[in-house]
Predict the 3D structure of the following.
Amino acid sequence: MNEKTAASQISPPDFIPFTRPSFDEATIAAVAAVMQSGWVTSGPKVAEFEAELSRYFGDRPVRCFANGTATMKIALQIAGIGVGDEVITTPLSWVATANVILSVGAKPIFVDVDPRTRNLDLSQIVAAITPQTRAIMPVYLAGLPVDMDELYAIAKSHHLRVIEDAAQAFGSHWRDKRIGSIGDLVSFSFQANKNLTTVEGGCLVLNNSNETALAEKLRLQGLTRHGPDGMDVDVLGGKDNLTDINAVIGLHQLKNLPTFQARRVAIAKHYFELLKAGLNTSALKGFALQLPPENFSDSNWHLYQVLLPLQQLKVERSQIMTELKALGIGTGVHYPIITNFSLYRKLGYLAETTPVAEVIGRSILTLPLFPAMSDADVKRVCSSLIGVFQHHYQASA
């Protein structure tokens, strides 16, 4: 055995991150062309991207923003949500979902999640509605939407706005209709780990020209231009515009989305096949790992998440993640429950009031899933995960 061969055998395997964006050479060339054009901030590429997104969502008006947090905050402002108002949402999300509600002076009202879908439990919404309730903000965790028919029936009967946190759901469907092509105000994120990325960015799907005009003002200091030199500011806006550099990336991502999506579905199916086989061994008999809902008609498979049966493991989730990392497997947590964060505890929220979400927040684990993954990568993730489980399984627990 020569020195090179020996070294290759003791080197760690190639690291598989939990996600990685895909950019082709055409995208890189398009970014260079924008930079060479001299117009790099909001300009013709943003307008082109918005037009393509509008077509994608059935000709609904769409405006782009610097990030998916801005889209949610501006959606709340467009809906007239402010001081003294309440917004019903889920505690199992990225903290931005709740932070934007606080940022407009309103109060998040957290409702527990469905143990199977891990999304807002719609059966608990009506009991949470008060005279101060103005909106419902569902989150489509891992790209799986809630029951849209039930959601909008509740909203209509109680005269509530719906602001969909569809940050993870670009390309998802409800009964063959694209998320964003139906509904009220729908917010998407284009952050680096999303199914369609502009590196950073987001878009908001709106209902009419009045909302669109207000969104344009709110994303750029409340400014309205009149003629070559006239300006006015009549509302308090921010600095949340998307750049042409980001937009041209989005245009190319949109072209590649069908290919990306098909690969995500194939990877998810491979995960189900391999994990079910691995769990069906004598060494893991009775091991209660919960796989995600096997929904291939509605979900865009943004994430593949399992729930660890912590009561059956000798170690905590952090140790499982550490050992997988040592094996070259990246994992993530999406998400710890919002009401366990210090800020929200100081505001009087308790994780114990939403017990299903609290358990999921402690036990959820995100496995690698991105279009560039090979079948061999998926197999390596599954074999590594099964091996770690076998090492720490307490069958008698």
Notes: The first helix runs from residue 3 to 10. Residues 1-11 have pLDDT under 50 and may be disordered. The chain has 13 helices and 13 strands.
